[in-house]
Amino acid sequence: MNSDALPGPILQSILPLLNIYYLERIEETALKKGLSTQAIWRRLWDELMKTRPSSLESVTCWRAKFMEAFFSHVLRGTIDVSSDRRLCDQRFSPLLHSSRHVRQLTICNMLQGATELVAEPNRRVLETLASSLHTLKFRHLLFSDVAAQQSLRQLLHQLIHHGAVSQVSLYSWPVPESALFILILTMSAGFWQPGPGGPPCRLCGEASRGRAPSRDEGSLLLGSRRPRRDAAERCAAALMASRRKSEAKQTARAAPATRVTRRSTQESLIAGGTDPKRDLHPPATSYEAPGTNRPPSAPATTSSASASSSTSSSKRAPASAAPQPKPLKRFKRAAGKKGARTRQGSGAESEDLYDFVFIVAGEKEDGEEMEIGEVACGALDGSDPSCLGLPALEASQRFRSISTLELFTVPLSTEAALTLCHLLSSWVSLESLTLSYNGLGSNIFRLLDSLRALSGQAGCRLRALHLSDLFSPLPILELTRAIVRALPLLRVLSIRVDHPSQRDNPAVPGNAGPPTHIIGEEEIPENCLEQLEMGFPRGAQPAPLLCSVLKASGSLQQLSLDSATFASPQDFGLVLQTLKEYNLALKRLSFHDMNLADCQSEVLFLLQNLTLQEITFSFCRLFEKRPAQFLPEMVAAMKGNSTLKGLRLPGNRLGNAGLLALADVFSEDSSSSLCQLDISSNCIKPDGLLEFAKRLERWGRGAFGHLRLFQNWLDQDAVTAREAIRRLRATCHVVSDSWDSSQAFADYVSTM
């Protein structure tokens, strides 16, 4: 029966009886007749999903939310569609029916769902996802087998390279599997390498059909016109040749690791029979691309032959030559004697992947780590540090790539950091980058070099950078200056360092400190920053360094300082004076967890600023000293400010007396246009809130917007609190909660 012919009342009565498939199909007809199905979808969510959405989440469409969650549960096998008649219908495919509603997909643990999505029966499901999916998330990944990675490779190729996925996020991966991590990175950056034995992509055209995968697939993508290698790249190639030679010979453990310096690198090149002044070509492989001409100086050989010739050359080397560096391993192999054969086998998945992105790096093994800081810092004869020992990638050879990359709590080894930095240096489509608690350490210098190289690329779109970590080898203000210099077109910068670290010194032997091209004394050029958020570690911060950043950020509209400490109130006043003189476009200013008890005159200076529209003093101990004198001065400044729209004062122990003093801001003789007030966590009691509401009523002040009352002592008298909130809702929108102040105090005491 045609649902359009059903009268509205009849249609409304049968809607709750339909299963989700017919309910979803009849949605358009219900809307035409003025009927809403949101309540039905919400009830389905409560009864079947049995989870409550976050209080911070605003659900605009319960139908889309339910169908997206339903898709994920069916894909992972965590819901039995046959257990409920509302989910079961043999005429519909649950995955296909719900796939068009999926905007965000999460892959967890051992890549569950990836193999099912690339299977031939779900071909239409994957095609639908390619057009609907925008965000792909990975959570709590574990070690996976080669088959699962091959399925993920095909899935990413379809969803990113031929789809609409624009954001990839990785969460909580304490021990990243190198091969899997680099696979996700390279695919997100737009590179595609068919896996061993994998089916050809039917969407890539005839050019990619039937191509046999090889270890040097990366060089094939780059084409025959390879760029000339500089000293850093020759060093990297030498290390790779040394590693392959050692693996082919199946020797015992190499000598203790040595630091890769300019001299040892050159000697290792000579010992290998290679002139360091000539370009090094990549080691030969058993596969040659059709039409690829090998230079006469590099005849085609197998990897074993190359290893033997290198061995004979090393025997003829002078006795004074330095020992070869310890080979840099790509991953831990299981115990056995098949190391060399594993490299040459067609199933060497991770070998193909690493050679594809030209990774040469070290990892900790038995407490020893190969340090390649000199290469990373660009100390080799003035070489371009953005190379990081890896060849440049031509953007024209890439597929479509994502625009947002987020890494949350994913520790980056030297190997992973090199890969990320190498990809970033030419990732022009990237618009937002988030690196949160990745343990970068001295790799931050490689990151800065790659960001500087990216900024120099034509068409660079990076406009937002979010960087946070436990430690940093650079003071946070120097790091901020370096980022602003490297990315002058950046619009949003959020940076946080929790603890200062003196042990993490990235300086290489012979250098007194960080690379001079990163830390310079010259003035910061004018930039495009509009939003700057900084979270500081313990210790006083040099105000002049912060002022230098602010002076160069004339377009700044929003500034947030968290846990900032200055040597004196005068230093804080210097920062505020700089804001007034150089940041005329500043609209929002936020201070969190700062002791401003001795900066009351500076606070009054801010409240008199006629350009600011929103000010936040969060847990700043504003009223710790001289509250009786300071509160009237603060209220007087606010009454004369007609541009301030929002004031947030959470966690300042305002109390009832302070709240009643603030009520005078809304009096009849006030020119204030304040419409948002946050007084959360201020020890406010019900009787004080009731008196505040009565004063607003007495002055006849119209609705002034939002009032936030979270975590106050309103539970001490529930009746009075309800009456106060009822009166307040006649003048403003009140947001509160049912907070147990006694339990919170007990929890606070228990943690002391």
From TrEMBL:
Record's GO cellular component terms: cytoplasm; nucleus
Protein name: Leucine-rich repeat-containing protein 41
Keyword Phosphoprotein: yes
Keywords of this entry: Leucine-rich repeat, Phosphoprotein, Repeat, Ubl conjugation pathway
Gene that specifies this protein: LRRC41
Basic residues bias (residue ranges): 327-341
Biased composition (Low complexity): 299-323
Region described as Disordered: 203-347
UniProt cross-references to InterPro entries, sorted A to Z: Leu_rpt_41, LRR_dom_sf
